Amino acid sequence: MNSSYNKLVQNLEYLKLKQMIVHLDETIDFMNNNQLSFTDTLIKLTDYEIDMKEVNMVRSMVKVGAFPHLKEVKDFDFDFQPTINKQQILDFTTLRFIEQKENIVFLGPSGVGKTHLATAIGIAAAKKRTSTYFMKCNDLIMNLKRAKLENRLENRLKHYAKYKLLIIDEIGYLPIDAEDAKLFFQLIDMRYEQKSTILTTNVSFKAWGDVFQDPKIANAILDRVLHYATVVNIIGDSYRLKDHFHKENTIKGEQ
Ligand code: ADP
Ligand code: MG
Asked: Cα separations (Å) of 210 from 32, 105, 114, 180?
């Protein structure tokens, strides 16, 4: 190896351009074999560095999103859940609904894929560098409650209000007392017409008065959530139980 090559490697090391070092030899070979110009060669070499930066950026955006898992739309079996319109879900992943500041509500019983789809849309958003955050409703309320006790509710609300996409999972699994419902309302009100929110729930809207233990607050929340929203009502069997049912049927069939 000649000394100018070594000097170049040293420079790249100093500039922390790792990918350019890794791909240096093959790029030099490619340049020689294809008589590439200086600028084209430099473009090729810097592209390796840029690609890696992009990958890392996407990875960190997804990490920041705090998703429960990394399941995407491609991992969803639409044949198993025929009441779901695949085109509609694919349209959500274009993030048009975020530009239009619309909400999505996934409504349906346990195990039908509400969290899976909400996460999949969230990951699609994070990959496109849209600030996204996933929370269980109960954790969100606990955090707001703690913030209020510590006199920093405004700050917390502003923090949650700033995400371009907030996913609030599992509304209705645990009851929310009327005081806490007000905190939840404040957040929904701050995001209304400004930012998109995805909510998942196993409780029909009529029964939200019971969830929030105050029909007036529940109505005020629903009013804002549903004003600009697509409701995906999933009617079907639990994917978690499908193997059990399948086994049961097989056993019955064999008898
Ligand atoms: P929910 O939030 O509606 O209770 P989840 O989204 O948590 O249900 O789904 C339960 C489990 O089953 C998850 O592991 C999820 O990835 C999986 N799952 C649900 N529906 C499907 C489906 N149609 N195709 C593939 N996996 C699914
Ligand atoms: Mg769920």
From this structure: 73, 18, 21, 13
Instruction: List, in sequence order, every residue forming a beta bridge with 201; answer none if it has no partner.
Output: 107, 171
Residue 77: strand pairing partners: none
- Last-in-domain residue among 46, 64, 82: 64
Cα distance between residue 156 and residue 229, in whole Å = 25
Q: What is the pLDDT of residues 190-201, one digit of tens each?
A: 999 999 999 999
Q: Ligand 1: which residue has its CA nearest to atom 16?
A: 116
Please give the distance, rounded to the nearest whole angstrom, from the Cα atom of residue 118 to the centre of ligand 2. Answer: 9
- Position of tokens 């529940």? 218
Q: What is the pLDDT of residue 244?
A: 74
What CATH number is associated with residue 134?
3.40.50.300
Q: Which two three-digit tokens encode residue 51?
A: 């690609």
How far away, in angstroms, is 27 Cα from ligand 2 center? 48
Measured from the CB, is residue 172 less than 6 Å from ligand 1?
no
Domain boundary residue among 17, 44, 64? 64
Task: Answer whether residue 138 is part of any domain.
Answer: yes
Report CA 126 to chain centroid distance, whole Å: 6
Which residue range forms the structural domain that includes residue 54? 2-64
C-beta of 81 in contact with ligand 1 (< 6 A): yes
Q: What is the pLDDT of residue 8?
A: 97
Describe the strand order of the beta sheet including 165-171 as a list of residue ranges.
Answer: 132-136, 165-171, 196-201, 103-107, 229-233
The percent of residues in the chain predicted with pLDDT above 70, rounded, is 95
